[in-house]
Design a protein that fits this description.
This protein has 130 residues and is of the alpha+beta class. The chain has one domain: 2-Layer Sandwich (Phosphorylase Kinase, domain 1). Helices cover 45% and strands 20% of the residues. The protein has a five-stranded antiparallel beta sheet with strand order 1-2-3-5-4. The two termini are 32 Å apart.
């Protein structure tokens, strides 16, 4: 994966957009293009993971009140990537959580628990049909 090549590609494809490096994980690198996240796989096998992720998110989205990304695969150019709208929210970790007011901690815990309950109560038979 060549970050300079990807950045040049993004500048050509989105000449009037604000483009920033967003982050990197084990399998992909992400760029923020205006209000969209574009993730570029580091290997060809990651593309299969993207396809699986899209199927799972499309199923889960209907069973939760929590915003769930709606990624789309893009193959029509020199790079394969997946894109979705940037969801509202903040990045936080345990130190951030510990510094939150107690009522905010409670709300976050309740929201997280509700999301996990909704996801884990999803009818997996529906997933097997897709």
């Amino acid at each position: 994966m060549n970050f300079d090549s990807i950045l040049k590609f993004l500048l050509r494809k989105f000449p009037n957009s604000k483009i920033n490096f967003f982050g990197e994980g084990w399998t992909s690198a992400a760029f923020l293009v205006d209000n969209k996240i574009l993730r570029f796989p580091k290997t060809e096998t990651v593309t299969k993971s993207y396809e699986r992720e899209i199927k799972i998110l499309n199923l889960v989205r209907h069973f939760t009140d929590t915003p769930v990304p709606d990624p789309k695969m893009c193959f029509d150019c020199e790079f394969k990537y997946v894109e979705h709208l940037l969801l509202p929210g903040n990045h936080w970790d345990i130190s951030n959580f510990d510094s939150m007011q107690e009522n905010i901690q409670d709300a976050l815990v309740k929201d997280s628990a509700a999301f996990l309950f909704q996801v884990h109560s999803t009818n997996l038979n529906l997933a097997q049909k897709n």
